[in-house]
Amino acid sequence: MSDGSSFYITTPIFYVNDVPHIGHAYTEVAADVLARWHRQSGEDAWLLTGTDEHGQKILRTATANGVTPKEWADRLVETAWKPLLATVDIRNDDFIRTTDVRHEVNAQKFLQHLYDAGHIYTGEYEGFYCVGCEEYKQPSDLIEGVGEYVGQQVCAIHSIPCELLHEKNYFFRMSTFGDQLLALYEENPNFVQPESARNEVISFVKQGLSDLSISRSSFDWGIKVPWDDSHVVYVWFDALLNYITAAGYGHDDEKFSRLWPATHVVGKDILRFHAVIWPAMLLAAGIEVPRQVFGHGWLLVGGEKMSKSKLTGIAPSQITDTFGSDAFRYYFMRAISFGQDGSFSWEDLSARYQSELANGFGNLASRVIAMVVRYCDGEIPVVGEFSDADELIRGTEKRVTDAATLAIGHLAIHEAIAAIWELVDDLNGYITAQEPWALAKDPANRARLEAVLATAMRGLGTLAVLLSPVVPQATAKLWTALGGSGLVSDQRIDRAWEWTGGPRVSPLEALFPRIEATVG
What we know:
Number of helices: 18
Largest sheet: 6 strands, parallel
Shape: elongated
Strand order of the largest sheet: 3-2-1-14-15-9
Number of strands: 18
Radius of gyration: 26 Å
Strand content: 15-25%
Distance between the termini: 42 Å
Helix content: 40-55%
């Protein structure tokens, strides 16, 4: 399907110190929807996800559980992080682990290159270090503690005290790239999005950048610094490199030139790493900076950021076991403006499932196919003449396709789905107004009945194509029932209204069965 263009998109690689919650799954689904959409637009789309397995946090967690860090990582990857992808139906092209040989070897190549070019030097550093963030904190990043930490300065994200560390480390001369970064943000306003994230990053860089400590000598769980094996690479410097080591840097030049640069989808709490440190690293290495860094908001439960430590973490399976993976994907992409914080509640999930998926889309599909079976013996009508009302639906199909495509170009997934849902609503209204069940009672209205059903079928097929990246399982079932050619995921989404089907429909089970009880 490729038309020669590439769309490389990444999620962050996630720490394996614990099991995933719906906040992690939210990021995975967003990146997956974007990748699927671009694949169906004829682009060479490539989705990368994976796990971050080095650093002090992992070492401490593994030690507390009586295993080696590698044993801990292996266990979590196989029992929790890879299964997450199946739970929410992610179609990733690669899964990288920072303990992979391909990553470790080529990360060392990158580091050696910077060292040889004079971008790294030896120095000493003392500061407050948050093990949870794996980051030295500035005074502005700390807040007054509460409860057992009253009177102490704690990390604003993890709400725990930081540790005062003093180490002799290797430093990356990041301070020399401040002006280049500000020029990058100015010349390419879309480099950091949404606008609130861009403003935050610009403000941070304008305050002046410090050089970055990029090694640790107080523990040994990490990639060895290639010229000094008494140090391991700082976990974030190591982790950020996954985006290029997985794409071929250092070992597959053709692949790397085809895929890079990437679009990074990250949580806003790790925005500075991706929008400041990462492009500075690439500028130093003479490598093109990413195409875009998009910092989405947090999922909130009870007004607080999703967190295992605060017991607000919800396992994705708690939702999918009841509502299914399609409903999970739809809800989080529709209910939350991508780029902003969003609150999760079981009540809202249940209400949207019933009103929008079961009653709105699912019931529409069932009604249309049932009427074709009942009134046309399952044969899809071939019509030569359509009314103004029919043409309006055709116009809506094209309009919402264009609007959704434009929204996806801005990573506004919620806006794309809202545009598509205009067709759902218009089709439901069209059927109510045209009353095909009444037309069927009089043979004299046969031609009109067939025109109405053909119009509804066209609209339904267009919806199947447009919603395929969001609810892949339901749309695959609908596509089969419509007699669509090939796989719905192979249809050109930017020309969704041009879909072709077979001569007949086939039975369709309920796409979104009714759920009586709300869980939570």
